[in-house]
Amino acid sequence: MSTVSRTTPLWIAARQLLEAQGEEFFKCWSKVAKKLEVEEIHDLRVASRRLREGLALFEPCFRDKRLTRIAKRVKLVTTALGNLRNTDESILFFSQLEPGERQPSNPELRELLDQLALEGLAARRKLADDLNDLKPGPLQARLSAELAAPQLFNNNRSDPFQEMCRFADGALAARALPLAELLPRALEEANAAGQHQLRIAVKKLRYRLEILQPLFASGFSGMLRSLKEYQEVLGKLHDLDVFATMVLERVPQGAGQQNLLRNITVRRSRLFADFLKMQDSTPVDAIGAQARSFL
């Protein structure tokens, strides 16, 4: 495979970059199918999301809706992995509370963790069944067939012969725009939905940036690091919101429940303060423009 550069024609770059994402996705799938380890599951979730972003990015280069239909199949893998991830993260959070945070809620915590442990076992069994039912072979063959047939002529959605850097500039602008639109709501501490939406937009820009990495001569590592840091803090905020909902729904009302909710609120306020500091030092809504300047 030749190296993609700024001047590579779009249709050639699209095939090569999507082939690379597909190879990583199916390699990760193979590892998870053999052993349902936490790290391998995480890698497959990331690879599935990045492949979906690549399919969305280069969809205009191929026959209408073909890559969209493949992306829907890939999303089934992402969804199957998500249920187990949420259970594992809940177990990790509640089991690692500090002694002072746990003490007033010990009976309730033990019961909750016992429930989550059983749910984790069931989720692992279901994940194994789901991945077996989905079968990577046909999906891999389908992706290869579509990548071998780009729409070079009569393509009114995108010029397949344009230089890759020109296409990438517009693609990054499209993914960066939602960050600026969503940021004001996310800066309101109580607006959990706004922060969740910003997290999704950050993830999509990060994956798009990673796919387009061969085009950047400099500055890539700094931009990517900043996006990962935003994704991490916004992801932890979302997790805490999920944990709070879990406590409200599954822990009996009383002192134990209130103690858990209080500790979650304290942690969330600290994380939100970190988010504000990050925004002051490296504004998230400026990263897209910075990336485009390095093309």
Describe the structure.
- This protein is an all-alpha fold and 295 residues long.
- The chain folds into 2 domains: 1-151, Alpha solenoid (CHAD domain); 162-295.
- Helices cover 78% and strands 0% of the residues.
- It is built from 11 helices and no strands.
- The chain has helices at residues 10-34, 38-58, 66-95, 99-102, 106-134, 136-147, 164-186, 192-211, 220-250, 255-281, 287-293.
- The longest helix has 31 residues, at 220-250.
- It is globular.
* Beta content: under 5%
Helix and strand sequence:
HHHHHHHHHHH
Average pLDDT level: 94
- What is the CA–CA distance across the termini? 22 Å
In total, how many domains does the architecture comprise? 2
Kindly state the percentage of residues in helix.
Answer: over 70%
Task: Please name the CATH topology of the largest domain.
Answer: CHAD domain
Radius of gyration: 21 Å
CATH architectural name of the largest domain: Alpha solenoid
Instruction: List segments where confidence is low: pLDDT < 50 over at least 5 consecutive residues.
Output: none
Backbone shape: globular
Q: Tell me about the largest β-sheet.
A: none
Category from helices, strands and their pairing: mainly alpha
Considering the protein shown, what is the CATH homologous superfamily of the largest domain? CHAD domain
Total count of strands: 0
Overall CATH class of the largest domain: Mainly Alpha
Q: What's the tally of helices?
A: 11
